[in-house]
Structure formats: structure tokens, C-alpha cells
Write a structure and sequence with these properties.
4 helices; 2 strands; 145 residues; elongated; 27% helix; mainly alpha
């Protein structure tokens, strides 16, 4: 159902906009989406405001608790596996810094259907923290208003 902009709604929108409230908060107060607010502001020709997204963002410092890193043991032969030496069935996990003399690939036996060995599969395929209760995209139903 479409939102009907009454003169009172427009007056409230204009007052909240002049106060400098964020579009999300204006939308909450009016019971509409922030995009509806932005659209109406544009159609009314209200003065533009500075974007809350900085054009020169300050670097963010990640607050991550480091996990102890486990490195794969070198191949039994102890030799460095280069890209040219990789064959089907060998783990493709890179180790070291590309371009350095000691850069190599794991080379261990892969898990069937994966490009990595068991050890590196445990690192590569980590379950995300997203809510798993949502239906897969192909099963979601979208309604057009």
C-alpha cells in the first residue's frame, strides 16, 4: 500500500529535515522508509545536506581477536611446491609471500571435490555468522506492489 503524503506529513517532513535529522529517523517518525523520505525531499526541492559518508574516510581499525595461526607442515619431501609443479589432487593453498624465494603451495592430498587438503579446508570453509533461518534466494517470494 502506497503512503499518502498529506499536508501535515509534508510539514512534518520539512521541519524534521530542517532540524537535520537523518532520513532513517525521519522515516521512522513518519512510518515510512528512508528511501520514501529521500524521494519526497527531492521532489519538494528541499536543500541538499552533506552526505554522512565522508569522501575521505578515516581508516578503520579492526578489533579482531587474533586466532592462533596453524601452518601446514611442509610436504614430506621438504621441497617447495611451485605453481608449475601443482597437479590434480594437490592442495592449492598458498604459503608465504608471492615473489619471495620461499613462496610455495601446500601440495598435500586434497579432500575429494575441494581444492585444498583437510587442514586447509578447515580454514577456508568457515561457517558464517549470518542468520541461517532465511529461505534460500530461489525459494523466497517477492511481491510487486
Amino acid at each position: 500500500m502506497a503512503f499518502e503524503w498529506t499536508p501535515d506529513h509534508v510539514k512534518t517532513l520539512m521541519a524534521l529535515w530542517a532540524e537535520g535529522l537523518p532520513t532513517l529517523e525521519i522515516g521512522r517518525r513518519l512510518g515510512i522508509t528512508k528511501n520514501a523520505v529521500v524521494g519526497k525531499v527531492h521532489r519538494l526541492g528541499l536543500p541538499k545536506r552533506q552526505s554522512p559518508i565522508s569522501s575521505n574516510p578515516k581508516p578503520r581499525i579492526a578489533r579482531v581477536t587474533p586466532k592462533p595461526t596453524r601452518t601446514a607442515p611442509p610436504p614430506p619431501s621438504g621441497k617447495i611446491i611451485t605453481m608449475e609443479m601443482l597437479t590434480t589432487g594437490m592442495c592449492n593453498w598458498p604459503d608465504g609471500e608471492p615473489g619471495e624465494d620461499d613462496f610455495r603451495f601446500c601440495g598435500e592430498q586434497v579432500v575429494e571435490g575441494k581444492p585444498y587438503c583437510q587442514h586447509h579446508c578447515e580454514r577456508a570453509y568457515v561457517r558464517g555468522s549470518r542468520d541461517r533461518t532465511r529461505a534460500p534466494a530461489e525459494k523466497r517470494v517477492f511481491r510487486v506492489a
